[in-house]
Amino acid sequence: MTGAAPLSVAGVEKRFGGIAALSGVTFAIDAPGVYGLIGPNGAGKTTLFDVIAGETAPDAGRVSLGGEDVTARAPHARAARGIARTFQECRILPEASCLENLLFTAQPKSLAAAVLQSLTRAPGVDAHRVDEARSLLALVNLERYTHEPAASLSFGQRRLLEIVAAFLARPRLLLLDEPAAGVNPALLETLHHAIRTMHSQSGGVFLIVEHNMEFIMSLAGEIIVMHQGAVLERGSPEAVQASPRVLEAYLG
Ligand SMILES: Nc1ncnc2c1ncn2[C@@H]1O[C@H](COP(=O)(O)OP(=O)(O)O)[C@@H](O)[C@H]1O
Ligand SMILES: [Mg+2]
């Protein structure tokens, strides 16, 4: 399917009881790049990520990856097609070492694969993958923690670990949910540089939810703005920041 959009979302709706979290989200990402997804709290950004990654089934609408409709596919099947994500609340294994977190916990597996891995204790990690994991730890200045438990990391360092773990499989579509939230200014620079570097290595689509405007506006080539469960605006960082509608959505 050459030429098909890496990601296409069409008419996605999702209700939680009386709340319309998503009320007709439609957009396509046609080319590789770093994209920002912004919008006020409650706009539906995290729910949209859940629908794209397959953790939440939409009430209506479709999600396509590279032209393939994956709406009915489980998260691990979507991961196998090149989706990876991080979560708004960091999900790492605190007792496992940083290296183990990268190698084993990064992405959803089918139950069968998880059972097989635990039974055989032979997860099929090749030396090349370990090298990649080590170089990603170095990218975020965590090499000295390679064999330390992830619990020994600061909050910001855990975020960095989770992000490089999601990148390890070189996803075609990487979804980052508020990567900069709670990260101190010193680590923000490391995070910014790491995202740039990973993107230049992968050439895929990075879609990043972020409230830190300076961070996302300097990182993304294009910004998609959500408001009340739908796409409100889309454009260059400059155009979006100058948009009266966007300003109104944030102030209202
Ligand atoms: N599991 C859930 N149950 C009930 N309401 C939810 C659930 N998840 C999200 N919501 C609601 O859906 C709306 C969108 O939430 P969310 O996608 O988390 O927004 P954002 O990430 O943009 O802040 C909010 O009103 C939120 O309270
Ligand atoms: Mg959210």
Name the hetero compounds present. adenosine-5'-diphosphate, magnesium ion
- Pick out the low-confidence regions: none
Main β sheet profile: 6 strands, mixed
Shape: globular
Describe what is shown at a glance.
It contains 10 helices and 10 strands. The protein is of the alpha/beta class.
Question: What attributes characterize this protein structure?
Answer:
single chain, 252 residues, alpha/beta, Rossmann fold, 10 helices, 24% strand, binds adenosine-5'-diphosphate, binds magnesium ion
Helix-strand layout with pairing:
Layout: E1 7-16, E2 19-29, E3 33-38, H1 45-53, E4 60-65, E5 68-69, H2 75-80, E6 83-85, H3 98-104, H4 111-120, H5 127-139, H6 155-167, E7 173-177, H7 185-202, E8 205-209, H8 213-217, E9 222-227, E10 230-235, H9 237-241, H10 244-251
Parallel strand pairs: 3-8, 3-9, 6-7, 7-8
Antiparallel strand pairs: 1-2, 1-4, 4-5, 9-10
Helix pairs in contact: 3-5, 3-6, 6-7
The protein binds adenosine-5'-diphosphate and magnesium ion.
